[in-house]
Each structure stands twice: as structure tokens, then as C-alpha cells.
User: Which sequence fits this backbone?
């Protein structure tokens, strides 16, 4: 069976805010100029928003520019930010700190980025964008000259052992004049393109954090719509980057979560267990007592900032949004910058198409106008001003607090120097023999929970009979290196219980068991594995978590 081929002017990989903003802006320009542009968006989740997880406090700046009437058109942003709190935690105390200016949220909204993406998808479809959810882009296609000519979706109905089952359906080739990659943090195809075209050659190593989030329904007397609370300090030690968020949404719901920088050094550390421990703090537990957990999820986020932005273009395509590193870590926000990157890309592409001759459809130009226009936008200025905040944490929490205060209040983001990170997150683990063991309390099933019981709240589903989408380059490494030197850290950094060291044969050797069906697509293993032996690739389309309002 041969692949079906579908041709478009623009194919967008990823149905998040960046990809949808690009699609909407392209169609707006086409309608304004009377110049038809065909646009297709591919989303690997079962529906738009199914794989999106964010805090989230949303700055509406880009949304105001893209769809100025959004407030009267049913956008799911209904809870304005009301009051900000920034707190330093010790094991017993909560010490209020001044809220940094970049973390003040007046004019912003608390909400679900997943729900926002679903609403943006409705606006895109109304403009004529073709949306295909449940179809995972699994392969980049290249032309004879090596330029990107599109993507192919993965074959369906391949069994665990690689055989074709009676469900077999070949993937589809989606070819385009320009292909936009808006896969979010650590996208599998973005990683391939970065390696092939050397996109990160002149950038700092990208830094990542793992964000773990729950939504709770709390007692009405404890609920304060619009309240925003961020904490630093406990349970992290002073050398480990991390912090929490607690956002009071509508309907007595609270989004609570914890982010751990993946450059941590102790292989005993478990980001999931740190989050569970955080919820037991005397200033946090009373909010949750008497409530009930209604959702759980986890996702990595890009933290490298301005210095880690890669080259954004290559022949035939470009990078958008979180996949390009546009999250502003000092604001803890990236939806507005992701959307703006998509809008700028759309404008550069549309002008390029208008300038091309009618018979130049096969020319896969590199759209250098896109990064040049970004540099003239507020996105570039915003990320530049906060460029030194995250790198300062490599010197420890207290030094970073002091430095960030000077950078913010004295230099106002315009210090005559730029700090750099020089390591990748997978390079930072120390050997198990050189670090203290971390003991975590057992979950109580009321406020704290084990990982496997949490998965039910992520609505994870994968077709069981398919090849594992978590691939090992060398099957001996997990025991020979990871277990021997680091006590198999994949057992602890994964927030979904995917990896287990088992010894299920009498007198046999230990082995790594991969429970791929548990995977919430957070990408932590692809980032943190110390030997980079684990590669995350897309499973069958529609697999993974099904977040309803994360």
C-alpha cells in the first residue's frame, strides 16, 4: 500500500498556541489580500489540547493582536489575575517576599492553555484551516536538494514486533511549500531537524524543567478566584532550581504544581516525590484538606531563554513557540510569546509567497525574514531583558536571588554582560556513591499519592499492540551504566512510572522494563538520561494523555 500524498501551501506540525496562531494569521492575511493560502495543522493528541499542560497564567498581549474581539467571542479566559504572592519556604515557615515586576500579573488571566487551544482551533477552522487531530507527524520528508518538503504521519496498525496487523494503514505524506514545526518542548522532529541542520550550533545548551501539575476542587471558603501564588525554597535545596505555583481558577478549582530544573545533580531526586512533599507544607496543606484532586499531568518546559534560542530557519521550514525556546522563565509564561512567534512567521511566509513567481511552488527557500522580523518584535526585547535570570541559578539559590534583584531593579534587564549555561541537563548527575540518599515519605492517599494512581487522572491511553515509542540505542546501558553508576535514575525522574528495574528470573540479572503505555509524553527521559541512550519518538496518533482542562 502506497502512501497518500496531500499538498498544501503550509503544513504546521503541532496544534498548540504557536501553530494555531500561525494558521489563523495566514488565513487572515489571505482573506485581507484576496490571495488563497492552503493551511493544514497536524496534532498528535486525540484532539486539540489533549497533550497541552501549562500552569497557567496567560498574558493576553498576542491574543489581543491576533483576535481583538476574543473577550466577546467565548474565549475560555474568564478569571482575571487578582492578587500576586511570592513566598520563600523553609520546612516550617512561609516568608513573603516582594513580587518581582516580571511576575506581576495585573491584566493577565488564569486558565487552561488546553481549553484556549481548543477555542483557537475553532477560530482556525472557521477561517478554512484543515485540522487533523490524532495524526502524529513521525518523519520529516526532504527533496533532492536536502530541503524539507513536508512530513509523513506514522503508519497505523504495526504490531509490537514490527509486523503489519489487520489494522494496518500506511501513513500520509503532507507536502508543503513551507513546513512549520510547533511541536512544543523537545519535539521529536524538531530534535531531528536541529541535528541535521546544526540549528543549535551557535546557541547555549537548552535548559529544561519538569513541571508536574494537579487540579484540585477545594472548599469554597478557601477559594479566592484570581489569586496567584509562587514559591521558591523548600523542598528544594539551595543548589537545585525549582519552585511551585498555585493558581485559583473558577468553580472552586485550584491549579497547583511544582517545577524542578533538570540540571539537578543527585540521582536520588524524584521531581514527582518533591511535588508530593511540597503539598505537605504547613502553608499549603490546609488549602487542600477537605478538597479532592480531579486532574494530574506532567510536561517539560524550556528554560534556556534568549541565549539558547537556536537558528530558527532551514530550507523549507522553520521553528515556532516552545520548540524554539520562547518561554520567558522569569515570567513563567510562554503562551503569549509562542503565539507571537507564530504570527510573525505567518506574516513572513505570506509576504514570501506573494513575492514568488507563480511557477516557483517547488522552491524551498529559507525564510530569513522570519528571525529578522522577530528581532524587531516585542518577543525579542522581552526575552533579552530576562536573559540573565535563569543562568544565575547555577550559582545557587541565594546568589541567584541577589543577582536577579540587581539585574531587575538596577540594570532593568540591560546589564552590559550576558550569563551563560555551559552544560546540558543530562551531563549534571553525580555518581550515586558521591551523594546523600533522599528518603521520601509514603503517600497518604489524601494529599499525597503514588505515581500509578495519579495516571488515572491523566487519562492516558495507548494502543497496546504497537512498537514501544521509547527506544534504547544500546540495551546494555541501563544496567551496565545507569544502574551501576546512578542507581537507574529513570526510575525516579519519570513522573509516570514508565521505567522499572526488575529481576524476574531466579538467579537472573536485573533488567530495565519499559511500561510505555504509562507515558504522559513529558519528554523527561529524552532530556535527562545521562548517556542519552533513550530516544522518545511519537507513538500511534491519538495515544498519550487526554487532558481535559490542563
Assistant:
Amino acid at each position: 500500500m502506497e502512501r497518500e500524498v496531500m499538498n498544501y501551501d503550509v503544513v504546521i506540525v503541532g496544534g498548540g498556541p504557536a501553530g494555531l496562531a500561525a494558521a489563523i494569521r495566514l488565513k487572515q492575511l489571505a482573506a485581507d489580500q484576496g490571495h488563497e493560502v492552503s493551511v493544514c495543522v497536524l496534532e498528535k493528541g486525540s484532539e486539540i489540547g489533549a497533550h497541552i499542560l501549562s500552569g497557567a497564567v496567560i498574558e493576553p498581549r498576542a491574543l489581543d493582536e491576533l483576535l481583538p474581539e476574543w473577550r466577546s467571542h467565548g474565549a475560555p479566559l474568564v478569571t482575571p489575575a487578582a492578587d500576586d504572592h511570592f513566598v520563600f519556604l523553609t520546612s516550617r515557615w512561609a516568608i513573603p517576599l516582594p513580587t518581582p515586576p516580571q511576575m506581576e500579573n495585573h491584566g493577565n488571566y488564569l486558565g487552561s492553555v488546553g481549553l484556549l487551544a481548543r477555542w483557537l482551533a475553532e477560530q482556525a477552522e472557521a477561517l478554512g484551516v484543515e485540522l487533523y487531530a490524532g495524526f502524529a507527524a513521525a518523519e520529516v520528508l526532504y527533496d533532492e536538494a536536502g530541503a524539507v518538503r513536508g512530513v509523513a504521519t506514522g503508519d497505523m496498525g504495526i504490531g509490537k514486533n514490527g509486523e503489519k496487523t489487520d489494522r494496518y494503514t500506511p501513513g500520509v505524506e503532507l507536502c508543503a511549500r513551507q513546513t512549520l514545526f510547533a511541536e512544543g518542548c523537545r519535539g521529536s522532529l524538531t530534535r531531528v531537524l536541529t541535528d541535521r541542520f546544526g540549528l543549535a550550533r551557535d546557541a547555549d545548551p537548552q535548559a529544561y524543567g519538569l513541571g508536574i501539575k494537579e487540579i484540585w476542587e477545594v472548599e469554597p471558603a478557601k477559594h479566592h478566584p484570581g489569586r496567584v501564588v509562587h514559591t521558591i525554597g523548600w523542598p528544594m535545596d539551595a543548589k537545585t532550581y525549582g519552585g511551585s505555583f498555585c493558581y485559583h481558577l473558577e468553580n472552586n478549582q485550584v491549579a497547583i504544581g511544582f517545577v524542578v530544573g533538570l540540571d539537578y545533580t543527585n540521582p536520588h531526586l524524584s521531581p514527582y516525590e518533591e511535588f508530593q512533599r511540597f503539598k505537605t507544607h504547613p502553608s499549603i496543606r490546609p488549602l487542600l484538606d477537605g478538597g479532592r484532586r480531579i486532574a494530574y499531568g506532567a510536561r517539560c518546559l524550556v528554560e534556556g531563554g534568549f541565549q539558547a534560542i537556536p537558528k530558527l530557519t532551514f530550507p523549507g521550514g522553520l521553528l515556532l513557540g516552545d520548540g524554539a525556546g520562547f518561554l520567558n522563565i522569569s515570567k513563567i509564561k510562554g503562551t503569549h510569546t509562542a503565539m507571537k512567534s507564530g504570527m510573525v512567521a505567518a506574516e513572513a511566509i505570506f509576504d514570501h509567497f506573494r513575492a514568488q513567481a507563480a511557477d516557483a511552488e517547488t522552491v524551498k527557500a529559507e525564510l530569513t525574514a522570519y528571525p529578522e522580523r522577530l528581532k524587531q518584535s516585542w518577543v525579542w526585547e522581552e526575552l533579552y531583558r530576562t536573559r540573565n535570570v535563569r543562568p544565575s541559578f547555577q550559582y545557587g539559590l541565594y546568589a541567584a536571588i541577589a543577582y536577579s534583584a540587581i539585574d531587575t531593579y538596577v540594570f532593568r534587564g540591560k546589564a552590559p554582560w550576558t550569563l551563560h549555561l555551559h552544560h546540558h541537563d543530562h551531563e549534571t548527575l553525580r555518581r550515586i556513591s558521591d551523594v546523600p540518599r533522599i528518603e521520601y515519605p509514603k503517600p497518604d492517599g489524601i494529599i499525597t499519592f503514588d505515581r500509578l494512581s495519579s495516571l488515572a487522572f491523566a487519562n492516558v491511553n495507548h494502543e497496546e499492540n504497537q512498537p514501544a515509542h521509547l527506544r534504547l540505542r544500546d540495551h546494555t546501558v541501563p544496567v551496565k551504566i545507569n544502574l551501576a553508576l546512578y542507581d537507574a535514575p529513570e526510575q525516579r525522574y519519570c513522573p509516570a512510572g514508565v521505567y522499572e528495574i526488575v529481576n524476574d528470573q531466579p538467579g537472573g540479572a536485573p533488567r530495565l522494563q519499559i511500561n510505555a503505555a504509562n507515558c504522559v509524553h513529558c519528554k523527561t527521559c529524552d532530556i535527562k538520561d545521562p548517556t542519552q541512550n533513550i530516544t522518545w519518538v511519537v507513538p500511534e496518533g491519538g495515544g498519550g494523555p487526554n487532558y481535559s482542562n490542563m
The longest strand covers residues 292-302. Residues 4-69+115-203+310-387 form a domain with the FAD/NAD(P)-binding domain fold (CATH 3.50.50.60). The chain has a mean pLDDT of 96.
